[in-house]
């Protein structure tokens, strides 16, 4: 079984998510010589080369070599064209293909590449850009146990990852963690705005909001108590927190959140249908 640091990895696409993964792999002990990347954008290639020292190419098939893993890091709108373009190169390598394109189902990738290709569909989120991402994973029947471990090692280089046992659950992952950062940003935005209206300076409101969000997340991760218990411990009878939570409840916050995640889940399903 190959170690993570023995792999050859080819990135097809060298945008923000790809360069985040490249940086994460280098921190895990990869050498730049183990990684190549292709992208038609000269600026993106320049970033990957100058910042990380990896070889880059303007043509997706140029110097393709025999990678162990091919990471499709392109926009969903062009992934069909890109997958068809590299299909022969992939077929000659027996490489594991990892897709980070939102809304693109395994069956589509199998049609564009080959139905015997080992493919993992992933759904990362933007905190991966700073190494704090959360990624959902789903594998087709051709992915081996070893390739599952390799996928975990790659995606865990920018945060955490979890497998789901059915592809439709990637839509749920999209609604929860894929879109989730925007929910927290919006909540923080409203907290900060209200604090300013109540008298705090924008700088103080921003710093307190950010640290409260960060500290709460870390506490939730490290505490033996579940989230409900942590909330209850903060909520004193007839206190300020209880007043705020009662206001949330009277405005049906739980239902609002449920409707929002359901809308995101439904949209993810529809986007997959649109791409087909």
What share of the residues lie within helices? 40-55%
Oligomer: single chain
- Count of domain modules: 2
The name of the CATH architecture of the largest domain is 3-Layer(aba) Sandwich
How far apart, in Å, are the first and last alpha carbons? Answer: 36 Å
| Spatial arrangement of strands, main beta sheet | 3-2-1-4-5-6-7-8
Structure summary, number of beta strands:
8
Q: Evaluate the radius of gyration.
A: 21 Å
How much beta, percentage-wise? 5-15%
Main sheet properties: 8 strands, mixed
Number of helices: 11
Provide the structure class.
Answer: alpha/beta
**Name of the top-level CATH class of the largest domain:** Alpha Beta
Low-confidence stretches: none
What coarse outline follows from CA principal-axis ratios?
A: elongated
CATH topology of the largest domain: Rossmann fold
CATH homologous superfamily title of the largest domain: NAD(P)-binding Rossmann-like Domain
Order of helices and strands: EHEHEEHEHEEHEHHHHHH
